[in-house]
Amino acid sequence: MPRPQLKQVTDLSPEDFERHPVWIGCTVTDYDEPWYDETDEGTFRPWTGDMPASPSEGMLLVRATFRLNDGSQLSGFATPAFEADELGTMQPSVFVNGRPFGFWGGMVGISQAKRQTLYSSLGKSANQIFPLEFVAEPTLTDGFCAGKVSGFYKMSKDDILLVER
Fold first, then answer.
1. Residue 118 belongs to some domain of the structure
2. 92 with 75: CB under 8 angstroms?
3. How far apart are alpha carbons 80 and 59 in whole angstroms?
């Protein structure tokens, strides 16, 4: 394969998903490519396989639409999962001012400063944003890629899912 467009997940934009509605992580799928040494776990390239893309192909990022609690819509992306309601796998992200903003913080969580950045950038309160719903276009993936986000997610040391706002 000739060297494709390579982008870090944090550098992806709404325009990237308009041009290529599905992206795939390079570290698992492209290990035999000559440009592999230019990649890391956060590097993605446009998906070139058949649609709908399957989560069994690797780490996918699929264009999705987000509907906030106040009814407004935003674009973003999520990772298809093998089962429904796997927010830790799907890790949905919306675009705010052209940059991705995620709700899944893992063990560290999403800082209060970053949460405030989302609220102020959108000019909305937590109650206007959450709960929000997201869904990927069904023609893009055969995995589960829809769900509800109640806030910012964090995993406790005891594997308890915490929701912060």
1. no
2. no
3. 8
0.90 surpassed by pTM = yes
Structural domain boundaries, residue 17: 7-104+133-149
> In the numeric block, which tokens belong to residue 135?
């869904």
Please report the sign of the dihedral spanned by the C-alpha atoms of residue 57, residue 108, residue 148, residue 134.
negative
- Let me know if residue 59 belongs to a domain: yes
DSSP character string of 144-165: B-EEEE-SEEEE-TTS-EEEE-
Domain count, the chain: 1
Could you give the 3-state DSSP secondary structure of residue 113? helix
User: What number is the average pLDDT over the span 40-66?
Assistant: 97
Q: Does residue 72 lie within any of the structural domains?
A: yes
CA distance 58 to 26: 9
Residue type, 79: T
User: Nearest Cα to 43, choosing from 32, 51, 35?
Assistant: 35
Q: Are 164 and 116 in contact (CB under 8 A)?
A: no
Q: What is the pLDDT of residue 23?
A: 98
